[in-house]
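As noted in the main text, all predictions were made from sequence alone. Below is one such record, for Elongation factor 4.
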Amino acid sequence: MSNRQALIRNFAIIAHIDHGKSTLADRIMEMTNTVSERETEAQLLDDLSVEKAHGVTVKSRTVRNYYIDNTGTEYQYNLIDTPGHVDFNYEVSRSLSATDGVLLLVDATKGVQAQTVANYRLAKAANLVIIPIVNKIDNMAAEVDKTIEELLDLDDSFREEDILKISAKSGLGVDAVLEAIRDRIPAPAGDESGKLKALVFDSKFDPYKGVIVQVRLFDGQLKSSDNVLFMANSIKSQIKEMGVFSPLMTPLDTLQAGDVGFIVTGIKDARAVRVGDTITLANNPVATPLPGYEDVEPMVYAGLYPRGSEFKDLKIGIEKLGLNDAAFQYEPEQSEALGMGFRGGFLGIFHLQIIRERLQEEFGLDVLTTMPNSTYRVTVKNEDEPLYVENPIQFPDYGQIVKVEEPFMLAKMTLPNEMLNDIMRLAEGRRGELVDLATIGSMLMVTYRMPISEIAYDFFNELKSASHGFATLSTEFDSYQESDLVRIDIAVDYAKVDALTFVMHRSKVDRVGNEIVSKLKDLIPRKLQSMPVQAIVEGRAISRADVPPLRKAQASGTKVSKKQQQLRRQGQKKSDIELPQAVFDAILDMNSN
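Prediction:
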């Protein structure tokens, strides 16, 4: 390790939502003179408007701070911000891989909560140094001693004298945090004279500069004139600019092992650079890349269609978001009812909501979102290989199906003891099977095996509601399992609307079908004639309601004859009904019950 590396610390802050992570990041930047008082604003690292609106970090950020200790020695503190919602676990692990230690922040008014435990487990799995910190000690409702006990229960390697007590809002005790970062978090170890090996842990797209990647250098050094190779796709590029965030982009001529910074690649293809890729020098590459991140698998799929805007505008917006959000996947699709759009893959419903809001806020796009669904494996007659169905429209006809399998997840929920009964009732109501029950500190960790389709819609929100915000959820794929699933088609005026097709367990179809048609008859725009709304399963209508006409016929002579009705139905290839977003929201609400 060089003398230069000995003065570098790479760290992240992890915490439950609203425990003060962004506030502590603000104080650290202020107390290291990274930002002046004039530049200071609340939640400085949360620069997306959706982040400030929801009070949760969505995109990870990094910023270089300079800390001068009491001996006059200047240290380089690279703070890598992490997201704070269950849907963004991938972003958390990605950020942690670029660090050497973490600050585990706990709110003294709330104690150790579920996301605290989940993030602690991620940091522990990554073998990172963990510095426990109790925040908001000056709050009237603070229970500092109780919170310390909970932290000691969480990890028996913690010692009471090592737990820091601070108020991030007022700055009380934050100087001790800066000293602890210096003393406890190890300096990066890397060979500065070796071949370049750098990890891409985040990226964003600039319309003028192209792809900008955030990197952590593990070995070697990088100069602003170098040609680099992105190893995953074998893409070569000459560096246009590089440097660090402090917190604004500050150009530098050299980055060396241990540094965290950015590279302006000039690559204009938004999907060319993979997050988790290894960068090396084009003329002197390393033989093997760094252990990359696993490609994240979407849990939820939904259609995104332009409403009141052009398809090409939506295409541009989605491509840019796809670069900034590695977990968001998409491909073009066409709907008879809605025209050209995209099929998007998301980590969960909150992730879908964030993408929709970002398209609105950043690109001014009003997007219509269809019913979310998961991936199904369908075995059909006379076919050796099963079909993988991501779009309910592609679900085979019931007469051709041999069996349907759906993906099951291991849902790990961390929660307080007293809430166990409510959470078990919730999970078993969603076709969950109990797999494991363990104690972690003062919390329980319950593991259920559940279908993705039951988790995807709003299980997390239900979990939060049942646990009053104290529970958290992390999921991992388990296996495909046979289920009695059927396709529900919604027909409006005898024409099936492809955008309203979805797949669900047979045990729910009668209840949901009745609720959907009764909702839709009030939401679908009226026409001069009455229009039936039907829920159709396996060729038969299981429920029906009529959308009333704009006005009643004034005399019997104006009524539509049976023959005219029949002709209209036969000649109708597709529905020309304009569907408001409220229709899709109603179906989403039905499935969340």
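The radius of gyration is 27 Å. The CA atoms of residues 244 and 261 lie 4 Å apart. These features were considered when defining construct boundaries for the mutagenesis experiments described in Section 2.9.
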